[in-house]
Fold:
Amino acid sequence: MTKTMYMHLYEYHKVHSPHNYQKSKKTFQYLCDLLMDLLSPGDYCELYVCYLGEENEEQESDCTVHLDNLNIDLLHIDEKRLIRIER
Structure:
């Protein structure tokens, strides 16, 4: 299932588009809250952030997010990034 979700969690948007940055923070926090309820300890979910049509292009970076130790203010999420969300 593919769901469109806009992620603007990086420094440029924090400075130049704070409204979008705050919306992205809220959206990502909501996703993490849902995953905290759905995932058992040791399980994970992967999220690939890209623009429509770039799904098959090579990823440029990755990161791991630990739900038990989440600090959204320290995240840098931009395009072509694979995010592993662990519980």
Summary: Residues 18-38 form the longest helix (21 residues). The chain has a mean pLDDT of 85. The longest strand covers residues 44-49. The helical segments are 11-16, 18-38.
